[in-house]
Design goal:
Helix 9 (about 215-235) packs antiparallel against helix 10. The chain folds into two domains: about 1-165, no CATH class; about 180-350, no CATH class. The termini are far apart. With about 350 residues, the chain is mainly alpha-helical. The protein is globular, with a radius of gyration of 22 Å. The protein contains 15 helices and no strands.
């Protein structure tokens, strides 16, 4: 028993020394949030560039600049796997050699199992790479070799099944939204909105489950309710800079305040619950996976909506109402009611950053 205990303790000390931690925080928060950075640096920014080029060509006629933007954007989107690989390895605090090798691992994972495969390959490969990093005299060979081999093997074995499982889950959500647009409009809008505000990447989740259609439209509205809602109701506490940081950046900035006083989460969340059915039943809002979990961050949710629904006066009016005007108005009204009930004060929204 003593030898077994020594072996276990030695293994645990090794993991600690290598900064290898098997926990939900490390993978659901650190790695998944970093995956979102990789997605934004490839799939999402590529989508923005391609969409601008395509829409500009429709409005102003084809030319070399617009064609170049469309072509470049498409290529950048295709680099999603390598970007996710590097981002996940970075989130797992991997050393440089492991991060560089994870570019290849993520690329292979994306081919085997889409975004989920890229995440799985990068995460597994990075942990093995970290374990052997600087442990041998031929580190420059051993570390990248083990990183790519283990990541690619796992991606090949489990990537397709994981990708199919997540997409099937997303399809169930989309089918349920089509069948019960009122109830699911509320559910999807509220849940994805809360994921966006939580220290978890709603964008990565929506992309991995391939969320689109009415469900993606409701998800976008829920995210906008959180971002625009917090932006306007915290204006007195944080000024214009704080409002822009939340409205076009992320409502995740409010997490420390939510932990201190959870009541402040009520106005934007109730707003999402109200606007979700309006999105699915009245306006028929849709989106693509890359825009579903982004809300108004960098206006990606809006660009995704135009990509899905087209750039028409009705779609533009719908976006302005459901993504900006109504989230602001409803959040202000609900926040005022909460203040009268003495549940919330303006200072509760103050950002200490």
């Amino acid at each position: 028993m003593g030898k077994i205990k020594d072996l276990v303790n030695g293994f645990l000390n090794f993991l600690k020394r290598k900064d290898i931690e098997f926990s939900d925080k490390r993978y659901l928060y650190d790695a998944l949030s970093s995956m979102a950075l990789g997605l934004f640096s490839s799939l999402i920014i590529g989508l923005i560039i391609r969409t601008v080029g395509e829409q500009a060509a429709i409005l102003f006629g084809d030319n070399l600049v617009f064609a170049f933007m469309a072509e470049t954007g498409g290529f950048i989107m295709s680099m999603m796997g390598p970007a996710v690989g590097a981002a996940v390895a970075f989130g797992l605090k991997a050393p440089p050699l492991v991060i560089f090798a994870s570019v290849a691992t993520g690329g292979f994972g994306a081919l085997a199992g889409g975004p989920a495969g890229a995440f799985l390959a990068a995460a597994v490969g990075a942990e093995f790479g970290k374990a052997v990093s600087k442990e041998t005299k031929v580190d420059i060979i051993v570390t990248p070799a083990l990183t790519v081999i283990m990541g690619c093997v796992v991606a090949k074995l489990f990537g397709p099944a994981l990708d199919a499982l997540l997409k099937e889950f997303g399809q169930l959500i989309m089918n349920a939204t089509e069948l019960k647009p009122f109830l699911m409009g509320i559910t999807v809008s509220v849940i994805v909105g809360l994921l966006l505000t939580a220290p978890v990447s709603s964008a990565a989740i929506c992309i991995m489950i391939d969320l689109s259609g009415l469900a993606a439209g409701a998800a976008t509205v829920g995210c906008c309710a959180q971002m625009i809602g917090f932006a306007v109701i915290s204006y007195k506490a944080n000024g214009i800079g704080g409002s822009f940081a939340q409205g076009l950046g992320t409502s995740m900035l409010q997490v420390p305040n939510i932990i201190r006083k959870s009541w402040i989460l009520v106005p934007p969340t109730l707003t999402a619950a109200i606007l979700g059915p309006l999105s699915t039943i009245v306006f028929g809002m849709t989106n693509i996976p890359a825009g579903a979990g982004m809300g108004s961050s960098g206006l990606v949710g809006q660009i995704g909506t135009f990509t899905s629904m087209g750039f028409t006066p009705f779609v533009l009016l719908s976006v302005l109402l459901l993504h900006f005007v109504l989230p602001a108005v409803l959040a202000l009204l609900i926040n005022a009611a909460m203040k009268r009930l003495k549940k919330i004060e303006d200072k509760d929204y103050y950002l200490e950053v």
